[in-house]
Sequence to fold (176 residues):
Amino acid sequence: MIKNFLMPLIAAPLLFTALSASALTFQTLDPANPGFTYDPLADQIKFYDGNITPQNPVNLQAATEEAFGLVSGSLTFVGEADVPDTSPSEFNSNTAFNYLTIHFGGSELFFYWDNAINSFSIADYKDITGGADGTGGGISNYRAYSDGLSQVPIPAAGWLFGTALLAFMGLSRRKL
Fold:
């Protein structure tokens, strides 16, 4: 009896959460020929023909993670810039990043680089970024993120792994 009463109370919030989760649809663009000019060459580019609101680093981080199939919360916000609509447009950051999201008013472009970069430029983008509703076209902001992988010092990780391995070997010898 109690089980029949509690199950709907537990299941309802879970169902509501699943239904309210965003499911954005991304178009994959060919990094070598995306329909605009940019530098440096990205490893992946995704396009979303819609407006992500509000335009803040947290929402755009979630959209970037979704665009590239990353675990939620795996990216770190490293920089942003609100820019006037000029072509070409540039973004520079003191902190290296490997994910960049560009908002065009009615659409978003998402970039990924295997090797982190500090600067980016884009031009001739108005044909692709106009969006289905025609409100896109002009850049309004950049948001940059890092996956943190390039920030892990490999020598330190090696020392930690090596000392742990030696400790396990020492423990196994004592048991003999």
